[in-house]
Amino acid sequence: MYALCDVSAMYASCEKVFDPSIRKKPVVVLTNNDGCICATCPVARKMGIGKSFVPYFTVKDELAAMGVVIRSSNYELYADLSQRLMDTCARFAPDHHVYSIDECFLYFGSYIPDAGWQAHAKTIRRTVWKEVRLPIGVGIGPTPTLAKAANHASKRIEGFNGVAVIDNNAVRRRVLKQMAVVDIWGIGRRLARRLNEMGIETAWQLAESKPALMRKHFSVLVESTVYELNGITKLSWDDVRSPKQQIYSTRSFGERVTDKSILRQALLSHVTIAASKLRRQQGLVKTIQVFVSNSPHDRDSFYRKSVTHQFLTPTSDTSVIANTVSGLVENLYRQGVHFYKCGVGLIELVDAAQYQADLFSLSTDNALLMQCMDSINARYGRNTVHIAGQGTTPQYTMKREFLSPQYTTRLEGLPRILCD
DNA sequence: TCTGGGGTCCTAGGACCC
DNA sequence: TCTGGGGTCCTAGGACCC
After folding, report:
1. Closest nucleotide (CA of A340 to C1')?
2. Rounded to an integer, what distance in angstroms lies between the CA atom of residue A166 and that of residue A171?
3. Is A142 in contact with A166 (CB distance < 8 Å)?
4. N or C terminus of chain A with fewer C-beta within 10 Å?
């Protein structure tokens, strides 16, 4: 059996943990640079504020009129609470996999809890609330896709109250019949529309359809989904937690950038982020892609440029990659462009353990230095030591106008308890 | 006054070569 | 008279997820 645990409106829920004054108010959290809405708490959702990823400025006045509390993304806080959440969830299964900042899969293998699945799921939910003060939904099912569906039911279907277990056909049927096809894991807006045109509206109808036919009309992925909805595992545990095939770090700027050296600094900090993720999964990169662009919303004509670079010897050394990227900036930069976004992608990866080195090309990686850097940063914070090319103080800013304190990671952010 | 997220994977199609 | 293949590499863009 598999379980999927995820936090309801993660970012909004995190904001409420250390600030009792907003617990009963509608809260909305914005993405980087306060661009879009990315999380809406249940109170706000009840008021009809449901749509994620609408640009904030288009609904700003409306939200203000409704008395909605606005927060910028406070990643330091969310990452720290996420860590605590994952530590707690991990205790309840032999194996776990962190799927995103607010979700994890648990894999039980042959393990069966003494108290039964329903009770086990309730215990997970209650323990997380007690220890981390985050509201989670727990879904359990025989395949990852059904665990996801159960999780959906736990939060969205009447009568489940945060916990759903699909362990027999009656429940499976009940859940899938009340679930729109678009809410199935892996079925997006577009596929859903095409399925609807074929008369398939609910998850149950998709489960009942012929797998081979779905493969013919769509892809093997949709075919696998049909099997998974019927309890036949197509996504093995190894698939669920397989290492990334590509790693990206990209970000938009708070203010447009026109200076070449600032663009370079930003790209080099993306190298730092991406390379450390790469080392975490014990990978080496063969091909990188670096891109810069202005905004399609700006009046200027659209400018986007990307270059790819192949390394003779695969590497995971931040300074080796940074040197290359630094050189590529000359190709990417253009005078007069108002840069809005840039990023670095590690697009062709190999497993460090399996890589067969070439006899004549010697790696210049300084593994010991990287190890040292990673362990210092793991302990004292992400940018405690970094390459000089990133600059000592970032010259580009991120707009975070409504930022809450970093309650758990900075002394000056420590919550205060006032006594009358 | 102006404002528009970030990440991963996949594929169609163009350029180039033989 | 008219026609015309197949592989590799690269890029842009789309789909999906959170």
Report:
1. B4
2. 6
3. yes
4. C
